[in-house]
Amino acid sequence: MVAAPRFGARSAISSIAAMLLLAIGTGDASWSRAIARHSPKHHGPRLAALTPEPFLRDLAIARHPPSASGASCNPSKFRIALDVGHTAASEGAISARNVAEFVFNLHLAQRIRDRLKADGFSETRLLVTEGKAKPSLFKRVAAANDLAANLFLSIHHDSVPDKMLEQWEFDGRTSHYSDRFSGYSVFVSRDNPDFSTSLRFADLLAREMKAEGLQYAKQYTLPIMGRNQHELLNKDTGVYRYDELVVLRKTRMPAVLLEAGSISNREEELAMGSPERQEMIASGVTEAVKEFCDPRWAILGPM
Fold this sequence. Notes:
The protein is an alpha/beta fold. Helix content is 43%, strand content 15%. It has helices at residues 9-26, 31-37, 40-50, 53-63, 101-118, 133-147, 195-211, 246-249, 266-272, 275-293, 297-300; strands at residues 80-84, 124-127, 151-158, 166-170, 173-177, 185-188, 231-234, 239-241, 255-262. The strands form two sheets. A seven-stranded mixed beta sheet has the order 2-1-3-9-6-8-7, sandwiched between helices. It has a two-stranded antiparallel ribbon with strand order 4-5. Strand 1, helix 5 (101-118) and strand 2 form a beta-alpha-beta unit. Helix 1 (9-26) runs parallel beside helix 4. The chain starts with 8 loop residues before the first helix and ends with a helix. The relative contact order is 0.17.
């Protein structure tokens, strides 16, 4: 490391402020994460003494407007409806090794719930719905609305249209796979009553997934996807528009759907079933919720 020149505290504060203002002006997506990594909580009292905390907090609020629940939420009272996609009776996609999507969704959602609660979001509620596909959609919407949740997040795992699947033998059975596509994707609906806030959380979530080293699924913009083709709202992080999804347009709170990864891809299916990948995704979701709850989190950490 190159030694920094000696200068006084006032000059240091001015330099920090200048760098932050420059970062806000450029809109660099990595800015908030870089500041978080070099914040006082990581570098002890010397940097803390040089950091004008009220100034930093004002800058954070200017960059990310307050969440719908106020200038900053109380994590212990912030209600998150964590929806397990599909049901035991309507299992969703089948993985390359014949495991139902619902099983993947349930395990990942449980891990996300546990991580959120461990970080203070004690009002996180897991929504596990019963019944057939279409009726279950309205059941989960009603459950989220009855909770008066502040945020709705639906957990899914991806596949591809049937026409794109290939056959192989696994464990003595004919199975179907597609190794052509992989990655996560994040969906929002313009018909949600609070689309702008939904999009803000979707962007935070997608950026955290990318920051974890994950890549987003690119196939949704391709004509080959047919009716499953969707508009890409953020080409940097993989936020897509999907207006027709019932759970996104009928909920009365900001709502986002996460396709955590492709289980029709044989390599990614193995990764999605691993505790390491599940913990990586749970960490990304939790960090996104923290910043959504209080945008100042990205700079100063817990307050």
